[in-house]
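Journal club prep, notes for RB
We'll compare a predicted complex against what the paper describes. Inputs for the zinc ion case:
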Amino acid sequence: MKKVIFLDRDGVINKYPGHFKYVTSQKEFKFLRGSKNAISRLSKAGYKLFIVSNQAGVSKGLYSQEILDKMTGDMLKEIRKQGGKIEKVLYCVHQESENCGCRKPKTGLIKKALKLVKGKVDIENSFFIGDSIRDVKTGKSAGCKTILVLSGRESADNMKEWEAQPDFIAKNLSRAADIILNK
Ligand SMILES: [Mg+2]
Ligand SMILES: [Zn+2]
């Protein structure tokens, strides 16, 4: 069976832009240290990787779909250069008020991703890695193991207030990869 890893983008792969803020240009997209290498290691271990990200800034008019697509193209190019492979990048560009089925913590994008995997997926041994409790909720709803990384939105100081508890907590994507690969 195939094992899948869902990755949130901002605060996991690239620098967290801040509360209620967005990465609005290619210039603002900055890879976090070690994230490309972690993606490469997970790809080489046979995991199918997907990026699943809320980008409501598009529907808010803060950046265009075209800019987002260019950002995605650049990101994938850099990831490939380091030997990583992303099956697909899936975005929800809607606002909460639109009540779509794809905005995390809903699992619409995960369902979409799973349809793209050939063969059966071992969802219980698949992972969702994100920097927010919303990501943890999404992963739990989908039946995955969850890893919260502390390289973005959340800090361990807030643990008592978390509405969902992750299976693992890691400093960053590199450490999350260590957990998954048992290193
Ligand atoms: Mg994030
Ligand atoms: Zn949506």
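Talking point for the session: Helices lie at 35-44, 65-81, 108-116, 133-142, 173-180.
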